Amino acid sequence: MTGTGSLLTGLECRACCTTVDADRAIGTCPTCGHTLFATYNLERGRAERILESFHRRPATVWRYRELLPVRDESNIVTLGEGGTPILRLAEVPETPGVDLWLKDDGQIPTGSFKARGMAVAVSRARELGLRSLYVPSAGNAGLALAAYGARAGLAVRVYLPASTAPELQRICRAYGAEVLAVPGTIREAGEQARTRERTSGGFDMSTLREPYRVEGKKTMGLEIFDQFARSEMPEAIVYPTGGGTGLVGMHKAFLELIGLGALETEPRLIAVQPEGCAPVIRALRDGESTVRPWENPRTIAPGLLVPAPFSSERILEAIRATRGDGVTVPDEALPDAMEKLARRHGLSVSPEGAAVYAALPRLLADGKIRAGERVLLYNTGTGAMWDADALRHTVRT
What we know:
This protein has a domain at 86-112 and 211-396: Rossmann fold. It has a 6-stranded mixed sheet with strand order 4-5-13-10-11-12, sandwiched between helices. Strands 8-7-6-9 form a 4-stranded parallel sheet. The chain has a 3-stranded antiparallel sheet with strand order 2-1-3, with no helix packed on it. It has helices spanning 42-47, 50-54, 114-127, 140-152, 166-174, 186-196, 213-227, 245-259, 279-286, 312-321, 333-345, 351-358, 360-365, 388-396, and strands spanning 8-13, 19-20, 36-40, 86-88, 99-104, 132-136, 155-161, 178-182, 203-204, 236-240, 268-274, 325-329, 374-379. The protein is built from 14 helices and 13 strands. It is α/β, with parallel strands linked by helices.
C-alpha cells in the first residue's frame, strides 16, 4: 500500500450533525437523509504545509490528494482530469469595464466537469469495495461514470431521460454501461433508478446523494486558487446551475483554504439558470431555505433541466455565505452566446456554459457584477456535440 497522505477524518451531516465513519460505504445521512460531507484534519495540513506540496505535482485533480478522500494510491482511477485552463476574454461590449476570465472544463476528459466528481467518487467506491454503480443523469454525468467505471472495472448502469441525444446514449454504451431511457426529466429518471435498484445491490452515484462527487468538484475551487495569485482572485464566479454540486464544491474548497490560512475571503458565487427551470433562483428571490420543485420544466440546456435539485439547502447556503446571487436567462439567448464565445474568443462551449455568458448584461445592469471587477465565468462542458442553429430551431418549436 502506498498512502496518498489523505487527511480525511470522517463524514458529517450539516443538517443534523451526525458523524459517520469515512471507511463505511454509505450514501446519505443515516439519521436524516441529507448529504454527508467529508472532513479533513486542516490543522495538521497547515502544520505540514501541504499547500507547498501541491505545486510540485502534475496539474491534475490528484495534486490535491491530501484534501481528497482516497487513502491508497492504487485505488486512484484517472484519465488525466483537471488542470483546465483559465483564459482571459477580450472586452465584451455588453459589459464594458468588467475584467472577464473563463475556466474551460470543456477540455477535460469525457468533455465536461462531471469527470472531476466521478474520478474521485469512482476511486473511493473502488477503495470501499463497491462493485456496481448507477446514476440518473441528464447526460454528462452518465457518460463520465461510464468511462471511469470502465477504467475501474466496475459495472455501471446509467438512467437517462428518453429525450437524451442518441449519440450520447451510444457513447455511454460504448464504454460498456447499461443504458436505460426513462420518459420525463432527470427527476423521473432518478425516481425510476432508485425504485429499480433497491434489489440490485447497485450504489447510487447521484449528485449529493453520496459523499465524494462533491470532493472531486471541490478541485474546481482549488484550481481557481492555484491559477490566480492570492491577491488576484476573482471577486465573483458565475456558474451554470443544475444540480448545484459545483457551487457546493467550490464553497467547500474555499472554506478549507481559509482553514489552511491560505485565503481570507471567498469570491461571490453567482448562479445562472434558464427561465424555464429556475428553482434555485426562485428560492433566492423568495428568501427560502430550500427549493420548491419547478412546474413544467423546460430548457434546451439538458444539464440545467433539474427541477428539484437534491440537498438544495447546501446550494443556497453556498451562494448566500459568499454574498452571491443569481439570475435567469431565456433559452433564446443560449445559441447566440455559444456563437459569440466561438467567434469572439475561439471557445467551444456547451449550452450550459453559454448561459453564464448570456447572463452578463443582466448581471451588470442589476449591479451583481460591476465595472472594474475581475469576474470568472465557468464553462462546464464542450460545445463539440452541439449545433447552435439546431438549438435555435428547438427553441422555436
